[in-house]
Amino acid sequence: MAVPEGLKDGWTISTAIICALAVTPVAAVVYLALTPEPGDDIWSHLVSTVLPDYIITTVGLMIGVGIGTVLIGVSAAWLVTMCRFPGRRIFEWAMLLPMAMPAYVIAYVYTDILEYAGPVQGMLREMFGWQTGRDYWFPEIRSLGGAISMMTLVLYPYVYLLSRAAFLEQSIGVLEASRVLGRGPWHGFFTVALPLARPGIVIGLSLVLMETLNDFGTVDFFAVNTFSLGIFDVWMNMSNVSGAAQLATVLLLFVALLVLSERYARRKQRFHNTSSKYQALPGLRLRGKLGLLAMTICALPVLLGFVLPTWILIEYAVQYFDPLLASEIAGYAWNSIKLSLLAGGLAVVVAIVIAYSVRIRGGQVLTSLSRLASLGYAVPGAVLAVGVMNVLGPLDNSIDAYSRETFGISTGLIFSGTIAAVTFGYLVRFLALSLGTVEAGLGKITPNMDGAARSLGHGALSTMRRVHMPLMRTSVLTAVMLVFVDCMKELPMTTILRPFNFQTLATFVHQYASDEQLGEAALAALSIVGVGILPVILLSYAIARSRPGHGQVMARPRQKNKMSKGSR
Amino acid sequence: MVEISSTFELKYAPIDDDHKHLADIVTEIVDALDAEKLSDSADLVRKFVETTRTHFQDEEALLASHNYPHLDKHKAHHATLVQKLETLQDMGDKVVDHPQAADSLRKELIYFLMDDIINEDLNFKNFITEAAAKD
Amino acid sequence: MDGLHIHGVHHAYGDTKVLQGISLTVPAGELVCLLGPSGCGKTTLLRLAAGLERLQAGSIAIDEKVVAGDGVKVLPEHRRVGYMFQDYALFPHLDVTDNIMFGLFRWSGEEAKARTAEVLRQVGLEQHAHKFPHTLSGGQQQRVALARAIAPKPRLVLLDEPFSGLDTNMRVRIREQTLNVLKEAGVATLMVTHDPEEAMYMADRIKGMGEGGNVLQSGRPTEIYYQPVDEYVARLFGPVNEIVTEARGREVKTPFGVVPARDYADGDRVKVLIRPESFSLSNAANGSNSRRVEVSASHLLGDSSLVEFRLADQLDDSENQLFKVQIPGNFDPLDHTRVWIGLAPEDAFVFAGD
Ligand SMILES: [Fe+2]
Ligand SMILES: [Fe+2]
Question: d(Cα B29, Cα A12) in Å, to the nearest integer?
């Protein structure tokens, strides 16, 4: 509405092009899988050899991480929303801290301290006088179980966040009704609260499992044969693109299931959330041993998932500090920052184009296109990497051929193995983040606000400048930040798509830690964690604002702008 | 002063003139009310009612002569307005003893003229100008 | 004539016609109200008048200048229209003063400040000049929206369900204040609402709209209330009692007396509609049309009571219909052993039956 009418078709066309681009990598993967080169077709070979292992391992990992994150996430969410115990206010946001920790970083740290040569086993041997590993049993960290534990520790916050929101949004009346009807609080939890929160939990769980499928660093380091690792193996070590694409396609089926269950749960969630008011929850007071137990349940994941590994990283960073290494790492950090800022900026520009075209033109088609464009968030990095490579490679070749034919100049590889390739991969994968944030921000500017500005004498551009820009600023910055942080942490796509000899913080950490040189990598790992803290702070801030009784419930007819940054 | 501004004109002189004549009577009534000559105003309202009736008949005859396709609908509309004329006459008579009713009479006359009579007549603006152009 | 002049506006969204041949005139200083059910295209008409929607057919003129239609399209920012949206659409990033100043950007600084102070005083919000919208109550937000709309001295003010977001107590107060502010501004105002009480309180002229987006009747509030042209308009003002029967000798016999039915021939099915507030209740027979009734329930509504009754001495059970009467004050059935109902024949509306 605030846009000149002549631009309207431009919006639609841009959105259509963006969506087409966002879909090509996945389309390329499926195409490759279905049309293998004759000599490359190892599908039957894969089926008879590694595929069963990949499936069992991947499913095992998903089940393990799923159970672990739901147990921790739901119980912590229940405790901080429905109970009163010492430290509850702190845990409310502190439970989110492990989000800042990439799974691969925590895996390096725990491997370092729990392996045979590490301090824990060393201490045990000293205490009990054991001589060799044969004298005692100690769990092997580099195993499926280890991978499950690592991922559970850093991924449970997704379940925590969404089930916390679900518990908070439940009409407290329902729970009180259950109390009045003579049921104890625990009965209320299992018969009322939990079933009502189920859609929220399912969404959180779906996100967790998507991240699990996406993980490359941990499974690579632990040599746990999941699909992501298998794709790399078949592609890089066996140089078989079709085989990799075929594995990737099977993985996409898993992903499709997750996306469907997430979408289904979201629909249900909308249906459930009838009251949008937060009411002060009564709170079950936990005293003495029960209070201590609650504290422990909340404290353990935070300690193990964030405090301890961070502390160890700091120790190492100090111990192994070396100015030369530090300046080298600074160079890699700069690479990471450049790349992530570029991707963040582009992702937001693209998101703004899509969000505005949906707003201005509306309609079912554009809405569906925007959904399609944001599906990349569910596609594992390894799959996208295969797709991006196989879209850009042929593109480069044809540009090169065309140029040689017409101008007699070889252009070489324009996109493949350049920053453009990595950025493209990031964009496809993280567009959903920026789009979601920008759309939410734009949603706060009701069409009537446009109308009001226009009636008050402001033209389209002035409306843009004086209403949209100030109101969108926070969302835009948030979107840039979210994409930036995820790009900083991203490993599988960066590893494959980066230019030759181009090192980022993540690839550097992975390379050194894989070579058992965690000490040297600690400073870089710590930087990644530091950057990862940013969105955690943002979420904590949102949680503090949404806390019952914090001026949230104001008379505001038909205008739900919870994030409005109006107040000074 | 009640005027027929250009957006209310049909651009067809015979009818526009009639409408202007009605507007002049309304202006006279408004002036009489403002000067608190209430019995004059009652007489003027009677004149307005009579002139309006005649106008309706003339207009219907004119439209019929051009075979206006929606004549029945417009006639029905005139019929409802004729009923309203009775109310207007009542109001005009009442004003003599109840000066406080002057304001609502003034308002009602203007709405009646502009909204009920002329705004509805604009429905055949295109028809009548085209028909006139053919003659 | 200064004011708003809309003629022959049609509008459709796809195949759905929301406005069909709307014509209306709002002289400067007057308030016209479109009364109709939700979703009958009322808001669309306001958006068309403001230029926020593209006019499909018809013409719109403000102060004798065509702003839409006949190949003309004046942009909303050049129409000088004050629009008060149903959700108020206050700018959340601006405080009350800046919201009001938003439309005064062409004014000199001094003038804008003086004007802002003036409208703030008119709506009684001087104390809240520097508060942000989300810290204000619904009634205060409504008044900020009104102040913002009238501050640039528009030629036309559009009000979309202006009081629907307010609770009942506040509504009455704000309604009165809003009317005063608008009359003081002397500006042409077009308001849409589905609330008949609001319409009758505010409007100089009411236009009753049907589901199809067409005007069914225009007139003064008393006229449209007491002389509805059809059943639909009669029902716009609330629930009515209904008696289905036949016309006989240009009349209709009802339990409450004979009602004239000039337009109906013998044997025509007719519907007699009677508003609950049209009945009168008394403790003694009062004239020949008075009927003794048995009260079956009474509900106190605050300043009035809604009493449900059936006819006494009714032999035929099937015709023993339940009627509702609304009377001022409290009515306790225990205080009244014998009750009679009366009805003035002109308060019963006769329309064609199904
Ligand atoms: Fe006429
Ligand atoms: Fe006429």
Answer: 59
Closest Cα to residue C307, out of C274, C286, C281? Answer: C281
In chain C, whose CA is at the least distance from the CA of A551? C135
Classify burial at C337, counting beta carbons within 10 Å of its beta carbon; exposed 0-12, middle 13-18, buried 19 or more. Answer: exposed
The pTM (predicted TM-score) of the whole model is 0.81
Closest-approaching ligand to the CA atom of B22: 1
> Torsion-angle region of residue C271: left (phi > 0), alpha (psi -120 to 50) or beta?
beta
Contact C85/A448, CB-based, under 8 Å?
yes
ipTM of the complex model = 0.92
Name all domains of chain A by residue range, CATH numbers in brackets: 320-514 (1.10.3720.10)
Q: Does A5 touch chain C (CB under 8 A)?
A: no
- pLDDT tens series, chain A, 568 aa: 444 444 557 888 888 899 999 999 999 999 988 888 777 677 788 888 888 999 999 999 999 999 999 999 999 998 888 888 888 888 988 999 999 999 999 999 999 888 877 888 888 888 887 877 777 778 888 899 999 999 999 999 999 988 888 887 765 656 666 666 666 666 667 777 777 788 888 888 998 999 999 999 999 999 999 999 999 888 888 888 888 888 899 899 988 988 888 888 878 766 554 444 445 556 677 878 888 999 999 999 999 999 999 999 999 999 999 899 999 999 999 999 999 999 999 999 999 999 998 888 877 888 888 888 888 888 999 899 989 988 888 888 888 888 888 888 877 777 877 899 999 999 999 999 899 899 988 988 999 999 999 999 999 999 999 999 999 998 899 899 989 999 999 999 999 899 988 999 999 999 998 888 888 899 999 999 999 998 888 888 877 666 544 333 333 333 333 333 333 3
The bound ligand whose nearest atom lies closest to the alpha carbon of B21 is 1
- Closest partner residue to C8 among B114, B115, B122, by Cβ? B122
The continuous run of DSSP H or E covering A427 comes out as: helix A419-443
* Phi, psi for B10 (deg, rounded to 5): -85, -10
Strands (E), C256-347: 257-260, 269-274, 280-282, 291-300, 304-311, 323-328, 339-342
Instruction: Bin B3: left if φ > 0, else alpha if -120 < ψ < 50, else beta.
Output: beta
